[in-house]
Amino acid sequence: MEIIRQRLASSQTLQALVSVSGVMFARVGGTLATLAYTVLLTRLLAPEDFGTVSALWALALLLVPLATLNLAPVAIKEVVAARHAGDEARARGFVRFAWHVIAFMAVPACALFAAIVAYRYGLTGREAWIGATVLALTIPLSGLVQVWAATGVAYDRAVLSQIPREFLRPLIFLLILLAVYGAGYDLSSGRALSILALGAGLTFLAQFWALRIAVGPRSVEGAAVANGRNLIETGFFLLPTRLLNENAKLLMIVIASAVLPMSEVARVTVALSIAGLLSFAVTAVEVSFSAKLSRALHAKEDRLAQRLFATALVAKLVVLVIGALALALFLTPILRLFGDHYIESRGLVWIVVAIPFVKALFGKADLVLLVHGARRRIFWVQSVTLALLPLGAFGVLQMGGGTAAVCIGFVAAFTFGSIALWLSARHMTGMDPSILGALSVMRRVD
């Protein structure tokens, strides 16, 4: 055991593997816990109430990037650069700067949440409004959680910093709901919102503790950032990609809640939750290949990068086909877990399952563009895709479409974005991360 610890301490490769494995373990556990507490919520709430709760929870999380001005993905780049330059004051200054930004943006973010809730969701009863109010207050707290988690990654404490957000938060929700379910208590939408807010608050405390361990409690004299405007501009340019990659499920739930009855929003939420297992599998494959791909692209080893893209694509398709076969066998029993209202959601599940398949078939074209400095191209393509998501939903409803048509509109928007990024990557770099590129590599091998 001592030999293993010594080798781990002296090997950066082993440390990286342990870190990636730990983060993936947290994400797997968090994904399973999320699916489990979703099942409990559908069992404890009427479909209309569950649709409302899922929409408000998604809306609150979707407003977190506004509360942070999307500084969370900027944190890793800025803090790593500062620490590499030996400028600890600049690294600590970023954390302080993010705190000031979130304190300033907390009021407009919470006010926007309250305005949307009052306009669209029509909550009735004191309990429901109390739940929505405390949920709104978690928006800046969740913003700090995201920034602190990213800061911990920059300080090489990825596992410690990711566990509260990725695993602990859904686990807290699950444990509380298991207690409610086991005790046979009635659960209203207001109480469910309060439980979600409580879980977010406890996650904030855990993340604060993790940050103090990762970064240390001491302040650094002169800690400040001189490029705050540039940091905010960077966050703005990264926002569309983040919304589509990390918050796609939340985005689709909120859009669905704007055009569909809450009972149908409940069905869309369940369909996206089940399809999310396949999306997670695709993301896991991409994470495992991302470091090697980045190194090959930066080194301009195009043939190696093309082979890695082909291998990753085959791995993603294998995982997706296995997942689809499992769904074909077990989808109806899985839907029965959620309740009678959701059994007829089979068609919705198969529609939204197309999204991870589309993303897999066209590959990580955004990575190719990012390495080649085409951030503006990524920004505009992703911005158009973002606009197409609500426009497609509204459009199909105007033509008389229903819930299935709204989901088809979501698939169409993501298909456009994947194709546009793929075409951009081929045109600007000659690289082809899609299925066509993989087939080309296979023909050369033959």
Automatic annotation (TrEMBL):
The keyword Cytoplasm does not apply. The chain crosses the membrane at residues 16-40, 55-76, 97-122, 128-155, 167-185, 191-211, 247-263, 269-287, 308-335, 347-371, 378-397, 403-423. The keyword Membrane applies. Its main location: membrane. InterPro entries: Poly_Biosynth_Transport. Keywords: Cell membrane, Membrane, Transmembrane, Transmembrane helix. This is Membrane protein involved in the export of O-antigen and teichoic acid.
